[in-house]
Amino acid sequence: MVISCAAVNCTNRQGKVDKAEISFHRFPMNNAGRLAKWEQAVRRENWMPNRYSFLCSRHFAPDCFKLRHKDQQRQLKDSAVPTIFDFTRKDRVSGGNLRKKLVSVGGAGVKEEEVAQCKRSITAESVGKKIWVFPELVGPPSEVGESSAPPPQVGPHQPTGEWSLGVAGGQEVFTPSSCSLIDALHSYSSVSRQERGRRGCASPKMAAPEACISHLLAATPGRRFHPKTKQEHLGFRRRKQAIQRHQLRRRARCLHAVLYVRKRRRLQEVTAAPLNPAVLALDWLLGSWESDEPGEGSFPTVPPFRYSETLLFTHVGQPVINFMFNAFHAESKKPLHRECGFIRLQPGTNRVAFIIAQNSGVVEIEEGELTSQQLTLQTHALARTSFAREPHVQQISRLFQLRSDGRLEQTVSMATGDHPLTQHLHITYRRSS
């Protein structure tokens, strides 16, 4: 359920605003006196709050909240009542949000002179109303001395309105009233196609607004479609399903982009902390690394293979460095081996310890020495799950080295119960961030 603010002219909702700045508070359904004050303050007609009704924190004065720390959730006092609201009426026309759609019966585009004429026909009297103007559906200009009053009604469904000359005095423009436009829409939806065709024989001037409505509804992409045959029905269903799939893919891409941006922001906030002096000697490892070319793997019990890998070394200001290794198949990009853990340095020495957890069920501690920009590690302790697959790994040796061209090289050797320490992996990375 999406939580949104119930106040008038307030569009705040959960997920759309920053939760650190705006919080949402439920109506006090268990306190009748306080609930009545909230309802009176909201001033919404013909509306009753329920347990899913909320108000955002922008409608409460600062003294309505309890004292809290920055990392705590904002809470209201037991006597808090909202007092900050915006009850001004939104004028869509004056604000420039009125959307006008000009339609031509012949399907041709609207000329620039007609568009300019329609813009001039919206006067100060039309503020607050929705005006529909159809300048290209009128008859020939009236002659000099001829009255511009509309002819008498032809049928019960003919709309009422006003005919007037354009600004240039050339073409006549019919401006239907809002009530007549709504009546015409209702009559169009309730009358059969044959009867609409018979009513189209009315006078040209009076049939023009209904013809406009018919053309608008016929050109609306979302109107109801009634297939006649099974093939049409299947085709319609296929098109509808294709549109729905496209919309779902588009929403998924948008959601993925939003999550990616949030993840990057969190990573930037984490890495914004200053590096702890205890791990300053390992600053050359920090950042993201990607395999420059597919690495090579081999062992006496497995056939040779190629793989790609990404490395991520980060810190949060503590005397440790966090890391995560993700390996993928070189061609199919299928996930393979994963490792994550921490790197620690013994204070005052060049002794380094890797604490590693692998997705194969092995937990390992490797210790070694740091020499300039080269790191050599050997297994110090190793544990595995009781149902780990054989052959069991007995020892692992690692070598990290930063080359002069800025690339990082890793060599991994492995020993099992049946085979001595043998080179298992070799790969080169380039820094990506």
From TrEMBL:
It catalyses: peroxynitrite = nitrate. Keywords: DNA-binding, Metal-binding, Zinc, Zinc-finger. Residues 1-85 form the THAP-type domain. CDD domains: lipocalin_heme-bd-THAP4-like (cd07828). SMART domains: DM3 (SM00692), THAP (SM00980). Residues 142-165 are annotated as: Disordered. GO terms for molecular function: DNA binding; zinc ion binding. It comes from the Eukaryota. This is THAP-type domain-containing protein.
